[in-house]
Each structure stands twice: as structure tokens, then as C-alpha cells.
Write a structure and sequence with these properties.
It comes from Peptostreptococcus equinus. Pfam families: Se_S_carrier. Residues 5-70 form the Putative Se/S carrier protein-like domain. This is DUF3343 domain-containing protein. The structure is a single chain. Helix content is 27%, strand content 26%. The chain is α+β, with helices and mostly antiparallel strands. The protein has a four-stranded antiparallel beta sheet, with helices on one face.
Length: 85
């Protein structure tokens, strides 16, 4: 099963700062609401690709971004949702 990797933050400012840093380093990230199963932080999180996790962690350390952690959950998207025909 495919997983989504979420970076969790104490505040949205660190999330937005890291989002900009990742984009500046040509790393893909998506701002996302924090899933309820991981909701021990502020409302936003970043989804990053599994294959770029090492590079993302390097950017976090180099720029001293405070994060709560990186969590994964199984991707649970039904492609047939809302299809009626």
C-alpha cells in the first residue's frame, strides 16, 4: 500500500517557511490540512514524497525548522468516490 508522509508543525509559520524552502530546493511539497488521525499539531501539514524524505530532512536540519515530526498514513483515496454512472 502506498503511504503519504506528513510533516507536522506546532504553528503554521514554520509550515509555510519550510514549504518555501523545499520549493527553493526543487523538492515537491503540498500544503495540506492535518489528518484527524495525526491531529496533535496546528491545522496545516506538508505532504512530501517518500523518495525525497532524506533531502527534506536535510533542509529541515540545515535551516533549523521546528517540527513535531514526520508521520505516515496509508493513502486511502477511493478513485470511484462521487461517481454515479
Amino acid at each position: 500500500m502506498k503511504k503519504n508522509f506528513y510533516i507536522l508543525f506546532d504553528n503554521h509559520q514554520n509550515g509555510l517557511k519550510l514549504y518555501k524552502l523545499l520549493r527553493d530546493n526543487s523538492l515537491k511539497a503540498t500544503i495540506s490540512p492535518t489528518p484527524r488521525s495525526l491531529s496533535k499539531c496546528c491545522g496545516i501539514s506538508l505532504i512530501v514524497a517518500e523518495e525525497e524524505l532524506n533531502q527534506v530532512e536535510k533542509v529541515i536540519i540545515e535551516n533549523e525548522i521546528d517540527i513535531i515530526g514526520i508521520e505516515s498514513i496509508i493513502k486511502d483515496i477511493n478513485p470511484n468516490r462521487d461517481r454515479y454512472c
